[in-house]
Amino acid sequence: MTTPETTPTPIFHQSMTAPLRRVLVKRPDGAFAVDDPVAWHYTARPDLAAAQAEHDAFTAILREAGAEVVYHEVDQPTRADSVFVYDPALITNDGAILLQLGKALREGEEAALGQQFEALGVPVIGRLTGDQRAEGGDMFWLDDQTLAVGRTFRTNEAGVAALRALLEPRGVTVLAYDMPVYDGAEACLHLMSVISPLAPDAAVVYPRLMPVPLWQELQRRDMRLIEIPDAEFPTQASNVLALSPTACLMLAGNPVTQQRLEEAGFTVHTYVGEELSLKAEGGPTCLTKPLLRRA
Question: Quick one: which of 50, 210, 247, 263 has the most CB atoms within 10 Å?
Fold first, then answer.
């Protein structure tokens, strides 16, 4: 047993692509097998046993890549989407910012994640309140001092302003981009639905739905952009989790994107997510909340 004197100080991250060392996940439980898939905007009712098996295989890949896998154990018996732990918070070098989710059925996930952070020793340095709305899927670190945020049906201007107020005193620039309506308010088109950083100089992208100013910013930064084909957007080919600047994890069943990533020099790991991801519209970035990234 470690004593308070020997317990290491937590180190967090403002990176999307440094080697993944510690990651929070939530194994699907009874809430995930929803009785009303339409209300949750799922394509069908997930098979719980199959989803759990897929999740176990998914976390095995994370461990094999060198990450410590930590489970979100706060009970949430009515929150099917709580498996998507990326959304309720933003992790910074100093700790976590608790967000307020834009999907009404997810209300309360933020507080539950805050309880888990407390148990893990992750400090909460701020939280959104009132009419401020933002979801983690609408934001990613462009670099260690620049956060990109999408204004969507799930993230509003008040949420963006709150993030600026919390982060700019810490030396972070927040760049906001407007996302298209796409399939409407009930569908989930996050900013990270169309881009996943892979390395400091590379990302996988779906240009058709990207904001023009973001595309121009990536060009200005001389980013290598690996484009996914139209046919693989519905199967979440643009949702890719960086395990390190040279390795990544994506859903199986996207062979064109996988080949393009391998040709770009990445080691690509895949997982089967028929129940876990495709029915519930959440890929590997959604299923994980990286707590520590460092070389």
Answer: 210
Could you give the residue ranges of the DSSP H alpha helices within the chain? Answer: 37-40, 48-64, 109-120, 157-167, 212-220, 255-263
The answer to whether 288 and 23 are in contact (CB under 8 A) is: yes
Judge whether 125 and 166 are in contact, CB under 8 Å: yes
What's the average model confidence in pLDDT over 148-166? Answer: 97
Structure tokens at 37: 């898939």
pTM of the model: 0.94
Q: Domains (ranges, CATH) in the chain?
A: 20-293 (3.75.10.10)
Burial 70-108 (b: 16+ CB within 10 A, else e): bebebebeebbbbbbbbbbbbbbeebbbbbbbbbeebee
Tens digits of residue pLDDT in 99-121: 999 999 999 999 999 999 999 99
**CA within 13 Å, CB half, 204:** 36
Q: Please tell me the distance from the alpha carbon of residue 19 to that of residue 16, in angstroms, as a whole number.
A: 9
Chain centroid to CA 72: 15
What pLDDT digit, counting tens, does each position of 29-80 carry? 999 999 999 999 999 999 999 999 999 999 999 999 999 999 999 999 999 9
